[in-house]
Input
Amino acid sequence: MTSQPSILIVDDEPVNLSVLTQILSANYKVRAANSGVLALQAAVLKPRPDLILLDVMMPEMDGYSVLSSLKSDPLTRDIPDIFVTALDDVTDEETGFNLGAVDYITKPIRPAILLARVNAHVELKQTRDLLNHKNEFLEEEVARRMEENFIIQNVSIRALAHLAETRDPETGDHILRTQSYVKILATRLQRSSRFKDTITDHYIDLLAKSAPLHDIGKVGIPDNILLKPGKLTADEWAIMKTHAEIGARAIEHAEKDVAQPVEFLILAKEIAHWHHERWDGKGYPDGLAGEGIPVSARLMTVADVFDALISRRIYKEPIPFEEARNIITAGRNTQFDPDITDAFNSCFEEFTGVAEKYQSDAVM
Output
């Protein structure tokens, strides 16, 4: 059963309080206050009133002052207020409306008019509250579904990345480490004038989400090549290098299945396709060079090479962190973007911290 609306009446005259209570009590829960100070105290008590009827001429604190205080308090500013007063000058009415009153009723009270106006404003308040409640519910529901979609998306990305790892079991926590590395590098380079327009907070989020898919193309490489313990022949190496294009094509097919562009897939495709390109143009599959290589792929190149160096593979043992650092540094301006190489060196301890955290196949 719906509870009766609550009305707070404020008047310093007991007779007026009695008359108003008698008129309203059949349809509303009525509370009374005989001063402005008591009115402010009563207005914040739960359940808060749905409407306040307020006299103007009261000692110590008049109705205008009470209304100003009500409108300045977040707990009471949305409660509609009607002035009920003997003042009938137009200037008095304008003052009340300017302060935020919703109506102005002059004394002596005419019950039918009072009830009609009170009922109209209570219904407006209830409708507004209902709309606000529905909007809040919708906002919460949208947020919940977005969070749910975010979780599903991340789980799907991880599942695809781990699918690639099942073909190459010695990579262990490689995707977790490289995901962390590119986020560290991007965050450091965000302060750089060269990258600040590209590497935004949003870009970093997309980059971290995309990074685990960098080797998804390995699912298309035959086991006798992918898992070969020795050195690959020239023909085998040519097949191994196709994993970059295979991964990019797979992501491109996924893009075609959705009606609008998916931002993280754009970066994922860049990373999968070009993370083996070199700054000097001697990489694969397309021989891109310098700024022609997307920033996302340049970041992944450093992350991927460092992790490959410090990790055990079927064809090699891991090397110490410092030795890997020296190799990356030596590749500055040839294999790697010089500024990204400098960023790597400046946050090297963060890289080693990640490697130690996810150390299943990394050297200690």
